[in-house]
Design brief:
The chain is built from 22 helices and 23 strands. By secondary structure, it is of the alpha+beta class. The strands form 7 sheets. It has a 5-stranded antiparallel sheet, with helices on both faces. It has a 5-stranded antiparallel sheet with strand order 8-7-6-10-9. Strands 14-17-20-13-21 form a 5-stranded parallel sheet. It is globular, with a radius of gyration of 28 Å.
């Protein structure tokens, strides 16, 4: 939108001078990307936050042209007192949504605004004309991009000794599929829709969704980036010829943890690892999948609680309902209440005219996942308890209940029993959500999975950024296995991504390790690993201080050797010695060496 919309807006900049009008471009969420127009009006717009970065969604600002156009998905004019915000009542606004020319998705909004005393109905025509020009330019660029992708993709396909190839653009949308037989379609994990436009979020390299994990039916080795002049144009899936003949079960993601029940081998979600601790947790998760009772997932930050929740949902045999997730942390009480319970028309000032379905009702017949449930405000907890006990939901402002049935999976990294004692969590709700519990092991408790996780994230990064798959030296893997991972799998994913992206050749060496890992591992000495009974998070300053102090003693105060051991520069070492007050330690080490 920015690449295409901004040049179009700049073309009308002069014609808007002294017109009393401004032109506004937003993203699909109502966040302003660019404003152009009459300088005096732009200055007045700053007073009402009609500026870059401001959010004009209806849920944030009430009735306004931008937010209402997004809500109704059609052109609107909001005049003067029709605005919800008092400060914007002197204004009149006309807005039109901008749609993807190929697929019809809303990409943003074009808005024409000015003071009400200069209002003219032609403002809407100007907004529609500008939106049309943006869509036309988008269509031209899409055609050019598709042409380049097809040309580059054909070169890739001609080198592929496979009967089935599928080409995707940079947004992860299917452009062309060739060689798919009925059997190969059926073998792809129930993904029968292979028509043009079908989207795979994990292959979207444009919108930031490319860090989404690959679906479990899609093996990383099938994925090849389509490159031209160092730029990624899209992705091609090259399916093995054997896919036409092999039964579908052979192509379930083999990196997922596998269980044996009797003689039947089954898989529960794309969760990476084969350690005993992980297999035990996944075994219990599989058992809990078909029990119609709430599940409380317990574990440290970053262990993958939502992945376990999704795996439990997908493992249910008696439901085809949706998986609906809501994070209870960080949301204001009233916003969380609206998101969770929904509301009816007129429930409160600024409510959408048609009301809103809450997450509880959206999960009907499926699974509701409440992450960080320990952070739910105490005032809302009785209402959730009433839903869980009675199976009836009262949306905000409603006089009649709605029947709901769903499986609840809650998650927390807090000790809920301690929260109950402290008066921050209701005891009756605690008993209701913790009918069954599942503890997810921390990464330091499953060190034998680390090498496999590194390889998985290595391939993910290669796919997402179009770089080659790297080889990790054994020394690097050993260091990663000895690190405590306070951020668990989430931290590891970002660490691997950083090392891969910062490595220019094909091999990741110890020089690519982040400084905090190098220092923490150095502080452990030559122990083979970190005990599972070690604290979850050791103070990094203490770890750093111990590592430097140990190295100073070992090298008798030779700072050149100390810096080399710790893989940091000598200037950085001087700063850290001062920071941790280690100059007496340094003097003592040098005296002992004399």
């Amino acid at each position: 939108m920015i690449d295409v919309g901004v040049p179009v807006m700049e073309q009308v900049r002069e014609s808007l001078s002294e017109s009393g009008l401004i032109l506004v471009l937003t993203d699909p969420s109502g966040v302003i990307l660019k404003t152009e127009g009459d300088p005096a009006t732009l200055e007045s717009a700053e007073d009402v936050r009609l500026v870059n970065g401001a959010n004009w969604d209806e849920m944030v600002c009430g009735t306004n042209a931008i937010g209402t156009a997004l809500s109704l998905k059609e052109p609107v004019q909001i005049h003067a007192i029709e605005h919800f915000c008092a400060g914007f009542k002197p204004w009149s606004c006309s807005a039109v949504v901008v749609r993807d020319p190929a697929y019809g998705e809303i990409l943003g909004v074009v808005d024409v605004s000015g003071l009400s005393d200069r209002f003219h109905r032609n403002w809407l025509a100007l907004a529609m004309m500008t939106a049309g020009r943006i869509e036309a330019e988008l269509a031209v660029r899409q055609m050019e991009s598709r042409w380049r992708l097809a040309e580059a993709g054909l070169q890739s396909l001609s080198r592929a000794a496979s009967s089935a190839v599928i080409l995707f653009d940079r947004q992860g949308r299917l452009v062309k599929a060739e060689g798919l037989t009925g059997h190969s379609r059926a073998s792809l994990g129930g993904c029968g829709d292979w028509s043009a436009g079908r989207r795979i979020e994990a292959l979207d390299t444009d919108s930031g969704h490319g860090d989404t994990a690959l679906p479990d039916w899609l093996r990383p080795e099938w994925v090849q980036p389509v490159m031209r002049g160092g730029q990624r144009l899209g992705t091609v899936l090259v399916l093995p010829d054997s896919l036409r003949r092999e039964p579908a079960r052979r192509f379930v993601n083999t990196r997922a943890a596998t269980f044996t029940v009797g003689q039947t081998s089954t898989t529960l979600g794309p969760i990476i690892g084969r350690s005993a601790a992980l297999r035990q947790a996944l075994g219990k998760a599989k058992h809990l999948a078909d029990l119609d009772v709430p599940v409380l997932l317990q574990g440290e930050t970053g262990v993958g609680k939502e992945m376990f929740a999704r795996a439990i949902h997908e493992g249910r045999q008696r439901t085809s309902g949706p998986f609906v997730a809501l994070n209870c942390g960080g949301l204001p009480r009233d916003t969380l209440a609206s998101e969770l319970f929904g509301y009816v028309d007129g429930a409160f000032t600024g409510a959408k005219r048609s009301g809103m379905i809450g997450k509880i009702e959206a999960a009907r017949g499926g699974t509701l996942f409440l992450d960080e449930i320990g952070e739910m405000p105490l005032e809302l907890q009785p209402y959730l308890l009433r839903v869980l006990e009675g199976g009836e939901l009262y949306p905000l402002g409603a006089s009649q209940p709605r029947t709901v049935q769903f499986k609840l999976i809650a998650a927390t990294n807090r000790d809920l029993r301690a929260e109950v004692v402290a008066g921050r969590f209701r005891q009756d709700l605690f008993y209701r959500v913790s009918v069954t519990t599942l503890r997810i092991p921390a990464l330091r408790e499953r060190k034998e999975d680390i090498a496999e996780l590194v390889e998985h994230f290595n391939r993910e990064v290669s796919l997402r950024h179009g770089v080659s798959v790297k080889r990790f030296e054994a020394e690097v893997i050993e260091a990663l296995e000895r690190y405590a991972w306070p951020g668990n799998v989430r931290e590891m994913r970002h660490v691997v991504e950083g090392m891969v992206m910062l490595t220019n050749d094909d091999t990741v060496t110890a020089a690519a390790l982040p400084e905090e890992i190098t220092l923490a591992v150095a502080a452990t000495g030559h122990e083979p690993g970190i005990s599972a009974e070690a604290p979850a998070v050791r103070d990094l300053d203490a770890v750093e201080r111990d590592a430097i102090s140990t190295a100073i003693g070992r090298r008798h105060g030779n700072l050149t050797m100390v810096a080399k051991d710790l893989r940091i520069s000598k200037s950085t070492l001087y700063l850290k010695i001062d920071k941790h007050g280690l100059n007496p330690t340094l003097r003592q080490a040098r005296q002992h060496d004399r």
